[in-house]
Amino acid sequence: MLRVVAADPASDDALRLIAQLDAALAQITGDSGASSFDPRDVQGHGAAFVIAYEDSGRAVGCGALRVLEGDTGELKRMYAQPGSGAGAVILAALEQRAIACGYRRLWLSTRRVNTRAVGFYERHGYARVAPWGRYIGREVSVCLGRDLFNCA
User: Could you tell me the maximum CA-CA distance found in the chain, to the nearest angstrom?
Assistant: First the structure.
């Protein structure tokens, strides 16, 4: 059984998981993605950083929610250790948190070459959306989103 708890993105468990995510992304995409994450963005109203723990207390995944604009939130730094099953649990927890924050939709960006991540999000109801901000004109990125009324 997994439990997902709010956490400080500067905690030891968070830093260890983010380092694992950075290494995995660097291997898959050639870029760790670290430059697109500011821990301050996932603290405060409308934001969250969560960690998934096994019953043993071992941290096996993380994810973040931040304000994007208006009633749209953005998912960041989603990671689950392979075989842990934490990805879907973390995603569901962040979607529920987003609903509680009043968001009507969630968006995210990942690299096209990260087909495992793209497939994961598509299996969970995310579809392509127009790129925004730093992702406009970046052919290496794919932007996905989901309306949250389908999550309630």
Answer: 44
- Name which CATH class applies to 2-106: alpha beta
Q: Is 72 exposed, middle or buried (0-12, 13-18, 19+ CB in 10 A)?
A: middle
Which pLDDT tens digit goes with each residue over 23-46? 988 888 776 666 676 777 788 889
Using CA atoms, how far apart are residues 152 and 54, in angstroms rounded to an integer? 25
How many other CB atoms sit within 10 Å of the CB of residue 5? 11
Backbone angles phi, psi at 71, to 5 degrees: -100, 25
Strand bridging mode 105-111 / 72-80: parallel
Q: Please state, in angstroms and rounded to a whole number, the distance separating the CA atoms of residues 70 and 57.
A: 36
Residue 6 β-bridge partners: 50
Cβ-contact 97, 91 below 8 angstroms: no
Q: Confirm whether pTM is higher than 0.90.
A: yes
Pairing of strands 59-69, 141-147: unpaired
Residue 149: per-residue pLDDT: 78
**Domains of the chain, residue spans:** 2-106
> What Rg do the C-alpha atoms of the chain give, in angstroms?
14
